[in-house]
Amino acid sequence: MSRRGSVQRKVPCLFVTEPFKVLATETITAKAIEADIYSAVPTEKVDGTCCYVTTYKGQPYLWARLDRKPNKQAEKKFKRFLYSLEDCKEFVWNIEEDFKPVPDTWIPAKDIEFSNGSPLPDENGHMPGWVPVEKNSKQYCWHSSVVNYEAEVALVLKHHADPGLLEISPVPLSEILEQTLELIGTNINANPYGLGSKKQPLHLLVPHGAFEIKNPPPLKQNDILSWFEGCSEGKVEGIVWHCNDGCLIKLHRHHLGLCWPLAETYLNSQPVVISFNRAKYDCDFEPKSLFHHFSNLDGQRFDRLKDIKFDA
């Protein structure tokens, strides 16, 4: 089941981490306790790049993540301040001078704080935000490959109605409006799921919260560690807990000193079916597009995602 959440800043970790270190301690963060982590819904953290669907030019559009970051001089000053172990909330930014420029179409993430009408950076010195993915964009070509603005649909990977089966299908952008998703595939994050090939790149969108973990471990570090290492469902990049107040809490394998990516992942252990009824769409899909290729595979079933191949 897909969960619609706020377009959030960096998702906090479940466990407290040591300053300037990645590894987690055994202490659950105050943020997680406050959000009632014990009644939250755990979902698979999918390894890709974050996207967002919202309105642009009067219609639903896919947006790519683009954080506004400090310029070199401001970043050095900020790092010196952090390493002095002072409270980073006391650091004063010059919003107009300290940050790199962004496109005019850039928008800040929804829960970002503002001061005098200007967005403020988070605790890492970044302003999370988004830019629209235009058709045939060169910079965001892999993003644009999974959307068709004429048909107003996106290629989405989700659970099929049959238990234990995944499904790839075109989903109206209007149905995922104001949702965040993960773009995965051949040219994203070294392709941990083995999708497509250099000759035939394959990318898909996965709604955040789409893959609920059915048998999650107790919220103790040793139990979670054992789950990651000894359970087939634990062959994932991490866990994201969706709390009742809308807060998200995450835990990455790296936080526990575990490796990622893995040779075999849980996502790739499940069969997948293609559901793409081309007759529903008035437009003609370009012959080299993913939409054209997947429409030719309508009704076909594969043992794993990495087994999907298009005819040459």
Which SSEs are present, and which pair or pack?
Layout: E1 15-17, E2 24-28, H1 30-34, E3 41-45, E4 49-56, E5 59-65, H2 72-83, H3 95-98, E6 107-108, E7 114-115, E8 118-119, E9 129-132, H4 141-144, E10 147-148, E11 153-159, E12 166-172, E13 180-185, E14 203-207, H5 221-230, E15 238-242, E16 248-252, E17 272-274, H6 290-295, E18 301-302
Parallel strand pairs: 12-17
Antiparallel strand pairs: 1-2, 3-15, 4-5, 4-13, 5-9, 6-9, 7-8, 10-11, 11-12, 13-14, 15-16, 17-18
Care to describe what's here?
Pfam families: RLIG1. It comes from Strigops habroptila. GO terms for molecular function: ATP binding; RNA ligase (ATP) activity. InterPro entries: RLIG1. This is RNA ligase 1. With 312 residues, the chain is α+β, with helices and mostly antiparallel strands. It has two domains: 15-63 and 133-307, no CATH class; 66-131, no CATH class. It is built from six helices and 18 strands. It has helices spanning 30-34, 72-83, 95-98, 141-144, 221-230, 290-295, and strands at 15-17, 24-28, 41-45, 49-56, 59-65, 107-108, 114-115, 118-119, 129-132, 147-148, 153-159, 166-172, 180-185, 203-207, 238-242, 248-252, 272-274, 301-302. The strands form five sheets. Strands 6-9-5-4-13-14 form a six-stranded antiparallel beta sheet. A hairpin with a 2-residue loop joins strand 4 (49-56) and strand 5. The protein starts with 14 loop residues before the first strand and ends in a 10-residue tail after the last strand. The relative contact order is 0.20. Residues 1-8 have low confidence and may be disordered.
